[in-house]
Write a structure and sequence with these properties.
The chain is mainly β. Helices cover 3% and strands 44% of the residues. It has two domains: 24-367, 6 Propeller (Neuraminidase), CATH 2.120.10; 384-454, Immunoglobulin-like. The protein contains two helices and 32 strands. It comes from Hymenobacter rubripertinctus.
Length: 455
């Protein structure tokens, strides 16, 4: 669609006064949801992640990483990233935790820094639960051209243990179509920063291209990847991300519906969005909701918006390749909304982004009539390993006979290297580790994960 100049653009960068912390209720079908402030006095919290320690992990654009107690709202700072450059929309952005965090305590962040101009990089830190610190930064990818707007960037670790990172076009519009550039892309990396062998282009981290400024990423249980993306003055988008596909920017805005766009889309394998908004709403954080706590949201996407200052439920169709309905909530109640996080108990946590020091807060949404029980998942089975370190074999021992269980061994990159099955009623099993490269591995059965050292 042709660009339309809009006076609303300036509103995206305006400085908003703090909104008062308030508790409110609203109806989602037959369910009453309570929205209440969890913690206040924050400055542009950018990312929220639910940790395996049952705390919220948070980034703020100025460079601070913290853990937040989801019951009391207490903020426990971990690190002020030393080389973050917060200017305009740049600064500390997305974050994700290693899926085997208990045994591989790695935290990944993406942020802007200064090196002969503004750049962007992906860095891995190591967490010490004992000391309550993050240390040993390891740069996995750097030197990505940036400016004070259009930096992306969300991080998402997929079920196959690869990492997605979204990048903006840095106001260099043609770079989104340039496969030699990392701008305007969704990148896919192994968890050590190397390029997966099955990426669309050998040796390139580019997974999809033709993006303007994607700031939401989520994966559905089916494996499908969904992204939210900022349009220009028109056509904010929700996209189904597919390997190697072109998403059109800057030649196409939204759907292919002008003469030039139709020709470009036909010639360049362009994937049209699932839904668009004109005028723009400033799409931000995106999560899939699949909890029984708020049954009317189950199987939907939850989208945080900045300019529109509301939470949007997007109902997916039966095959998850289209949007069958939309409903808005909390319009204007808390101001601009940046991040959305869903806890295992079905609570939804939102961060505000009101562009003033101390103006922001975290808000928790919950159905207070929903009772969380201990039977929502399989009980954790504590697996014992010996000898550990191991050289040729390791004995796997369960504390008591159980139903048949699968044991998965993963390397430090999260790749499955061994799979073995405990027959029902058996408590001991011998696992060969011959052929494995010496190093650190994780061994998982059910919800129990143990560290294994192979010598």
């Amino acid at each position: 669609m042709n660009r339309i100049h809009s006076l609303l653009t300036a509103a995206l960068l305006s400085t908003a006064a703090p909104l008062a912390a308030q508790t409110t209720t609203f109806a989602v079908g037959a369910t009453t949801v309570t929205a209440a402030p969890l913690t206040t006095g924050l400055t542009i919290p950018w990312e929220l992640v639910w940790g395996p320690d049952n705390f919220l992990w948070m980034t703020e654009r100025g460079g601070r990483i913290s853990r937040v107690n989801p019951t009391t709202g207490t903020v426990l700072p971990l690190l002020q990233v030393p080389d973050v450059t917060p200017a305009g929309e740049s600064g500390l952005l997305g974050m994700v935790l290693h899926p085997d965090f208990a045994t591989l305590p790695y935290l990944y962040i993406v942020y802007n820094y200064t090196d002969n101009g503004l750049k962007e990089k992906l860095v891995r830190y190591t967490y010490s639960a004992t000391a309550g610190t993050l240390s040993s930064p390891l740069v996995l990818l750097d030197g990505i051209i940036s400016t004070t707007t259009h930096s992306g960037s969300r991080l998402l670790i997929l079920a196959d243990r690869t990492l997605l990172m979204s990048t903006g076009d840095a106001q260099l519009r043609p770079e989104a179509q340039n496969m030699a550039s990392l701008n305007g892309k969704i990148l896919r990396l192994n968890l050590d920063g190397t390029v997966p062998a099955d990426n669309p282009t050998p040796g390139s981290p580019v997974y999809s291209f033709g993006h303007r400024n994607p700031q939401g990423l989520t994966q559905l249980p089916t494996g499908q990847i969904i992204s939210s993306e900022h349009g220009d003055a028109i056509e904010d988008e929700i996209n189904l991300i597919e390997k190697g596909r072109n998403y059109g920017w800057p030649n196409v805005e939204g759907v292919c519906n002008t003469t030039d766009e139709l020709a470009f889309c036909a010639a360049n394998n362009v994937r049209e969005p699932l839904v668009t908004w004109t005028p723009t709403i400033a799409t931000a954080g995106l999560q899939f909701y699949n909890s029984p706590a708020i049954p009317e949201w189950r199987g939907s996407l939850l989208l945080a918006t900045l300019k529109a200052s509301k939470l949007i439920q997007l109902r997916l169709n039966a095959t998850n390749n289209g949007i069958s309905g939309q409903q808005d909530f909390l319009t204007g109640v808390y101001g601009r909304l940046r991040a959305v996080c869903v806890s295992p108990q079905g609570r939804v946590y939102l961060s505000t982004s009101n562009n003033a020091a101390g103006a922001d807060q975290l808000v928790v949404l919950e159905n207070r009539d929903f009772v969380v029980t201990a039977t929502t998942g399989a009980a954790a089975v504590q697996l014992r390993l010996y000898p550990n370190p191991a050289q040729r074999t390791v004995m796997l021992e369960l504390p008591a006979p159980t139903a048949a269980a699968t044991v998965i061994v993963r390397d430090a990159l999260g790749r499955t290297v061994r799979t073995i099955r405990f027959p029902a009623g058996q408590t001991r099993l011998t696992l060969s580790v011959e052929g494995l490269t010496p190093g650190l591995y994780s061994v998982q059965t059910g919800r129990s994960t143990q560290r294994l050292v192979v010598e």
